[in-house]
């Protein structure tokens, strides 16, 4: 997605590319903190064999302790793990967190940066059925609507207050190394 002001007006939608590049050059430390990683634990859809289950212990806003049942094995080491292994993230969302909470915590700051002229990328990564599509969203519902719809809504709300703008949107799928244009 790309947002720019139209050539015929002088409305400012944020910093110019030159200003953004200059600020990045001035503060390399900002680059280091510009990548944030959040994890979202999805609800189990149906009873799963206990021995193959990873158990997620109570966790804080930024840590995710993972362990297995006594007879289980932990995928990364192949060994039974009785004590939690704690992974650290910038944000951790559990089954009870809503789409709105995930958006407010991890995506809205990115959209705000985008509206100030910065490039922004939101990447959903995970094994099949882990909830990437659910999180990114396929509906416009207030309750279940995902990150793409919420981001667009926020961007268009911002643009309503702006006189002239140009927004280009692409929607591509890469599946089995094939590139598919989902808008055609
Ligand atoms: N946080 C969640 N709350 C409720 N249901 C969820 C959640 N995450 C995923 N699901 C449900 O789990 C199922 C699988 O999720 P989804 O299709 O989003 O996975 P995916 O990562 O996109 O899978 P794939 O890589 O195979 O496309 C769907 O039925 C989805 O509605």
Could you characterize the architecture of this molecule?
By secondary structure, the protein is an alpha+beta fold. 28% of the residues lie in helices and 18% in strands. It has five helices and nine strands. The protein has helices at residues 17-26, 28-32, 99-115, 132-136, 147-160; strands at 2-4, 38-40, 54-56, 63-68, 85-88, 91-93, 166-168, 172-175, 178-181. Strands 3-4-5 form a three-stranded antiparallel sheet, with no helix packed on it. The protein has a two-stranded antiparallel sheet with strand order 1-7. A hairpin with a 6-residue loop joins strand 3 and strand 4. The longest helix has 17 residues, at 99-115. It is globular. Mean pLDDT is 74; it is low at 8-17, 26-32 and 68-74. The structure holds adenosine-5'-triphosphate.
Coarse shape: globular
Helix content: 25-40%
Question: Which residues form runs of ≥5 with pLDDT under 50?
Answer: 8-17, 26-32, 68-74
The tally of strands reads: 9
Class based on secondary structure composition and strand pairing: alpha+beta
Give the bound compounds: adenosine-5'-triphosphate
Largest sheet: 3 strands, antiparallel
Structure annotation, total helices? 5
Cα-based radius of gyration, to the nearest Å: 20 Å
| Mean residue pLDDT | 74
Determine the N-to-C terminus distance: 16 Å
Strand order of the largest sheet: 3-4-5
Beta-strand content bin: 15-25%
Order of helices and strands: EHHEEEEEHHHEEE
């Amino acid at each position: 997605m790309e947002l720019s002001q139209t050539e015929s007006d002088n409305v400012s939608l944020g910093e110019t590319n030159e200003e953004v590049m200059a600020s990045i050059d001035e503060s390399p430390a900002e680059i280091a903190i510009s990548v944030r990683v959040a994890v979202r634990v999805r609800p189990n859809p149906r009873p799963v064999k206990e021995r193959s289950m990873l158990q997620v212990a109570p966790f804080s806003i930024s840590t995710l302790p993972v362990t297995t049942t006594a007879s289980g094995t932990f995928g990364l080491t192949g060994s039974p793990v009785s004590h939690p292994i704690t992974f650290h993230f910038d944000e951790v969302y559990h089954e009870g967190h809503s789409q709105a909470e995930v958006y407010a915590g991890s995506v809205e700051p990115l959209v705000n940066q985008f509206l100030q002229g910065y490039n922004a990328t939101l990447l959903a990564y995970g094994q099949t059925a882990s909830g990437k599509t659910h999180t990114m969203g396929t509906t416009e519902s207030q309750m279940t609507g995902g990150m793409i719809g919420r981001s667009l809504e926020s961007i268009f709300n911002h643009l309503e207050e702006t006189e002239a703008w140009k927004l280009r949107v692409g929607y591509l799928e890469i599946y089995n190394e094939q590139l598919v244009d989902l808008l055609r």
